[in-house]
Amino acid sequence: MNIMCELKSEINEIEFHENIEGVDEWPHSWPKGEITYRLNTITQDITREQHQHRAVTVALRAWQLRISDLKFRRERNPDVSVDFEVSFEDLAHFDNKKGVLAHAYFPGQGDVSGDCHINDDWNWVTSSKYQTLSKPPLIPILIHEFGHSLGLRHDTTETQSIMYPSFDLGQKKNKLHQNDIDRIQERYGARKLSQRIIDYFQNRRDMAWDFE
Ligand SMILES: [Zn+2]
Questions:
Q1: Given this model, what pLDDT does residue 7 score?
Q2: Which pLDDT score is estimated for 135?
Q3: I need a surface site. Which of 49, 52, 165, 196 has the fewest CB within 10 A?
Q4: Residue 166 burial by Cβ neighbours in a 10 Å radius (0-12, 13-18, 19+)
Q5: Cα–Cα distance between 41 and 51 in angstroms, integer?
Q6: Ligand 1 center from residue 168 Cα (angstroms)
Q7: What is the pTM of this model?
Q8: What domains sit in the chain, N to C, each tagged with a CATH number?
Q9: What angle do CA 110, 111, 114 make, to 5 degrees?
Q10: What is the pLDDT of residues 67-97, one digit of tens each?
């Protein structure tokens, strides 16, 4: 059974209610250890290809800073198979639903586990710093999708949660909510890092230092 979760932009907020599968947590997680990932296709929207790869890494780091039992490693060799793949896909892949920003697969489903597809019908920018009402930022959307890749379902109880099912293009949402942190640590253990380090990376994400 391929359960797939779609993050939609605010304009299609009505639709997402149909996609909520229930309040129970997804039963599968990744086994402890290292998992590999790779961005396999790129978009024309962002000129520097390296920035696209970096956006994926920065989004994963948001989770990595909070958990102890998993490590993410970017695989650079295009011929080596990876645990989860990230790709830009055309509108047809999303059944021509323009409001969908991206979707991802939960773990425990074989080859597709963790895979994340981004709707290239949108005109993407890397960071929230560069977002506009018509240009969604990759990083918060990827943080949300990777939450699914790791096994988190939507959180409909808190609009500020990164796992809230829709994304308001007018707002900057760039950090994990305490709900997100609690849920991911329940699955993969809590990493002990000083608040100073967490804040440093938060600031780095807000200021888009990785994309200058
Ligand atoms: Zn989602």
A1: 57
A2: 93
A3: 196
A4: buried
A5: 13
A6: 13
A7: 0.90
A8: 4-17+24-211 (3.40.390.10)
A9: 90
A10: 999 999 999 999 999 999 999 999 999 889 8
| Active-site choice (49, 145, 158, 186) | 145
Q: What is the DSSP letter of 127?
A: S
Cα(15)–Cα(11) distance, rounded to whole angstroms? 9
What is the pLDDT, as a whole number, of residue 6? Answer: 57
Ion ligand 1, residues whose Cβ is below 5 A away: 5, 7
Give per-residue pLDDT as tens, 98-109. 888 999 999 988
Is 145 designated active site?
yes
Structure tokens at 60: 């994963």
Alpha carbon of 145 to ligand 1 centroid (Å):
6
* Stretches in the chain below the pLDDT threshold 50: 1-4, 9-23
C-alpha 4 – ligand 1 centre gap (Å): 9
Distance CA 77, CA 38 (A): 9
